[in-house]
Amino acid sequence: MTVNKDSKCVFVIDENLPKGLAANTAAVLATAVTVKVGGMVGTDVTDGGGFCHPAITQVPIPILKASADELATLHAVARADDALLVAGFSDIAQRSRSYDEYATSMAALEPEGMRFLGVALFGRRKRVASLTGMFGLM
């Protein structure tokens, strides 16, 4: 997938997470999206004093809130749409002490059994909005 003028990216985070876990969830989702979406990140910029600032996102990313049940439904509906990039951050990922432990745990679990702390969607603006428009800002 690649960013274009019709692209939209939204993060939806569990409304009951403490602030620190919510911030961590958003950071992990950002990593997942920027790895998979071409053009998501701009180029480095230099300020007037000559200091180089590393690139940041070129796409606004609203961070919304939802209940755990709403996140599960959102993930289930969105993953059925091949035109969307869907990235989920689960309680298994949050609890895992290594990537290997995370991968092993995920391989043994059906999607219906996952508890998502956050879900990121990237795709056509109208489609992403249709799936996330009912959620409020975090």
UniProtKB/TrEMBL annotation:
Coiled-coil residues: none
Classification via Pfam families: DUF2000 (PF09391)
InterPro entries (alphabetical): DUF2000, Pep_tRNA_hydro_II_dom_sf, UCP033763
Domain of life: Bacteria
Signal peptide start-end: none
Name of the protein: DUF2000 domain-containing protein
Organism of this sequence: Desulfovibrio subterraneus
Taxon lineage: Bacteria, Pseudomonadati, Thermodesulfobacteriota, Desulfovibrionia, Desulfovibrionales
